[in-house]
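agent> Task received from the user: take the single chain below, predict its 3D structure, and emit structure tokens. No templates, no multimer pairing.
agent> Plan: (1) validate residues, (2) run structure prediction, (3) serialize to tokens, (4) report one or two observations.
agent> Step 1 OK, no nonstandard residues flagged.
tool_call: predict_structure(input=
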Amino acid sequence: MSSFIPEYMDTLLLLLIGNSVVANVVLKGTKGNGSGWMVITTGWALGVFLGVVVAGHYSGAHLNPAVTVGLAIAGSFKWQWVWPYILAQMLGAMTGALLTWMVYKDHFNQTPDRVVKLGVFATIPAIRNGLCNLLSEIVATFVLVFVIFYLSSGEIKSPDAHTPIGLGSVGAIPVGFLVWAIGLALGGTTGYAINPARDLGPRIFHALAPIKDKGSSDWGYAWIPVFGPLIGGSLAAGLYLILK
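)
tool_result: status=success, residues=244
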């Protein structure tokens, strides 16, 4: 539990900030309405920064099943902790989505566009092309996980050698800049999920929540932001092992 709760909290913070910055930009009547992609990518990068600051010392602040699996493949994280971490990440993501909806509930009610409402929580491709969308998520997540290994020099341990540090070992600021760069450069095609929990958790919340006139949760697309990041993270770990 000493790692489960921090991993839950860091993912909660990531999704609260990330979903909320999207809500502020796209929902009707908000102060930030129409402020654009730069605001969204900056918000997501700062959400990662906050998550790493809060939980890096305790859980490693993975915030992302693709990172957790990638670290396990590279031998930097114990496989027995993978599923507890993913569960914490999923629950944190759903809670972050819930809080975003509570904060912006009036603006959801005033927004008639169902796709816009879904887009607060889940990624939606700019052009729907399954193969290209999958490739976008694979490439973007590959960059995320591969660079993380070199930022941390592959040393994913705390001083006592027992607590997995993960992203926390590289410091919060470089990771935030990494996610910002990915969003600005590679996020224009799919909205750069680069994180199965980031998309699937809020998408589940969207499906279950009593959001006014919410429309479809687009489950036909939902597998891409899950499997794309997992593939990309695994490939990054495999290449790191080859080059190590």
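agent> Step 4: summary for the user.
The chain has one domain: 4-243.
agent> Done.
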